[in-house]
Amino acid sequence: MSLTDYLNTIIVGDCLANLASIPDDSIDLIFADPPYWMQTEGELLRTNGTKFSGVEDNWDKFNTYKEYDEFSEKWLAECKRILKPNGSIWVIGAFQNIYRLGYIMQNLGFWILNDVIWSKPNAVPNFGGTRFQNSHETMLWCTKSQTAKYTFNYKTMKYLNGDKQDKSVWNISICIGNERIKDEEGKKVHSTQKPEKLLYKIILSTTKPGDIVLDPFFGTGTTGAVAKRLGRNYIGLEKEAKYIEIAEKRIAKVKREENSLFDLSLEVKPPRVSTKQLIEGGYLSVGEKLYDKKDMFVGKLTSEGYVDDSHDVLSIHKMSAKFLNLPNNNGWNFFYVKRNGKLESIDGLRYEFSEKVK
């Protein structure tokens, strides 16, 4: 089978065998949520004496560290093989396994870009009061080589973070309520289901529309559901029939959202247009007043497209930097004009001008 036959499907069976069927250098992004080998012993009891349903699944059981390491090295080596030269991989884990996975990944030649902390404001308590509450997991974001020209949608993530550089600590609640998939008896179907918001940030930040996202431990299909919503392709690998049935039904209900943000409109390089061109094109006028976003008057436009504040005549960049008392600043994002009594960004005007002259 060709790679196109696998797109937007779940490949049933053992993850190692199915990874071997994926062509070399073919996947844009991998999200891997492997067994953590939690090594829990005995029953976990809440403070009221009732049993807490933790990770007791057979797929999370290993006999020795050597066995776990050998399994991890095999699937990670396959992931490195199928990843495109400029692709990237996210691997999530907790204190039980993330240090072993990181060691193996570095030995395999992966290059770590970030370790991102998933901080859980509603994490499960430490019922016995014997340790600190374990309220985070760690994600390793890596490329297959140090020289990879990987995708990172910096501007998009900055915009979503209140126009501030996004950080490597993500506060995202664990799955609860309607998002947590449960069976007919009201019990959670998958013990380690990840929240869609987590995959939303991962996929949106490190892929482009139409990219292929592979999840070798697909579970109930969170990766596929989010990928479909964002206009990316997915490939899932899963051997548990009960998870596959739920994942297929879940993803079938998802529709792609038409959203310029998902199409990375913010990552497109701005048009090469000058303020003088906007004046010549009738989008701005000589002597027009310029304001900041708080409606404070700054200066007037000159015939050459500069800003005159009655003291200096400077470019939009230098004048905005002067006003903000900064060494440099992007004037396109700073200045506004008034249209029908409302502020309008001059940045938007240059895009309008660029579209008209195409």
Structure description:
The structure is a single chain. Strand 13 (307-308) and strand 14 form a beta hairpin. Helices cover 29% and strands 21% of the residues. It has 2 domains: 3-267, Rossmann fold, CATH 3.40.50; 275-356. It contains 11 helices and 16 strands. The two termini are 42 Å apart. With 358 residues, the protein is α/β, with parallel strands linked by helices. Strands 1-10-9-2-5-7-6-8 form an 8-stranded mixed beta sheet, sandwiched between helices. A 4-stranded antiparallel beta sheet has the order 11-12-13-14. It has a two-stranded antiparallel ribbon with strand order 3-4. It has helices at residues 3-6, 15-19, 65-82, 98-108, 154-160, 196-206, 222-230, 241-252, 275-280, 316-324, 346-356; strands at residues 9-12, 27-32, 44-45, 51-52, 83-93, 111-119, 136-143, 169-171, 212-215, 233-238, 289-291, 297-301, 307-308, 313-314, 336-339, 342-345. Helix 3 (65-82) crosses helix 4, helix 6 (196-206) packs across helix 7 (222-230) and helix 7 (222-230) runs parallel beside helix 8 (241-252). The longest helix is centred in the N-terminal third of the chain and has 18 residues, at 65-82.
